[in-house]
Each structure stands twice: as structure tokens, then as C-alpha cells.
Amino acid sequence: xxxxxxxxxxxxxxxxxxxxxxxxxxxxxxxxxxxxxxxxxxxxxxxxxxxxxxxxxxxxxxxxxxxxxxxxxxxxxxxxxxxxxxxxxxxxxxxxxxxxxxxxxxxxxxxxxxxxxxxxxxxxxxxxxxxxxxxxxxxx
Length: 140
Description:
With 140 residues, the protein is of the alpha+beta class. The chain has a single domain (3-133), classed as Nuclear Transport Factor 2, Chain: A. It is built from two helices and six strands. A six-stranded mixed beta sheet has the order 2-1-6-5-4-3, covered by helices on one side. A hairpin with a 2-residue loop joins strand 1 (37-45) and strand 2. The longest helix is centred in the first third of the chain and has 24 residues, at 3-26. It starts with a helix and ends in a 7-residue tail after the last strand. The mean pLDDT is 93.
């Protein structure tokens, strides 16, 4: 495959990885994080910091399990490739449905670093910066 086709394929794979990770978060699963993250992933999120894939999965679970449902909606995904490394930036709207029926909406900016592994692209760094929201989330 020529360089241009490889770059297109990499961008598609990384964009799909963003979408699949959003579905994983909305499923409130703790297992399966290795399909998205490297073993040595680091994260800085509104819910806390994490080091390692198991720690990140536990952080995601703690940050979302109190809600009946969540809906992560990534948009405006920008992928910058540098060989076997990449930076991905996007905005997201996240809807949090509480058990009492209240709906909270948050927006955030995401910045991820990724690297190509033997299993495909995986995120190695995750940073989430809140932008706006309708009300404080549980734990705020």
C-alpha cells in the first residue's frame, strides 16, 4: 500500500476506534479496555487520573456506573499522523441520565495519543478537558 493509502486507512481505523471506545463507555463495561488502550496508558480526566489499562477501566467505571445511561457523542475528529504514532483531537457531548430521571449534559475537549501495536492502533494517552455543562455531575 502506498503512503497516502496507508495514511487514509490509519485515519479511518483511529476514527473508528474513537467511536467504538464511546460505545464501550456507554455500555458501562469494565472489561474490554485493552481493545482501545495500551497496557501503559495514562489518563487525566474530570473523574481523576489513571496509569495502566486496568486502572483506566476502573476509573471509567467509577465515573459512569452511577448513571442509568450515558451517551458519548464525539465529533470533529482530527487525526495527526507521525509514522506509528498519532494525536487525535475532538469535541464531545456526553449525556448523563440519572436514576431519578434528571438528564445532565456536558461538553468536553478530548486529546488522545495513540500508537500502532501488533493488535492495531491503541490509545496511549487520554486527556479530557471539560468545556460546559448543564449542572454538576455526581462527584463534582
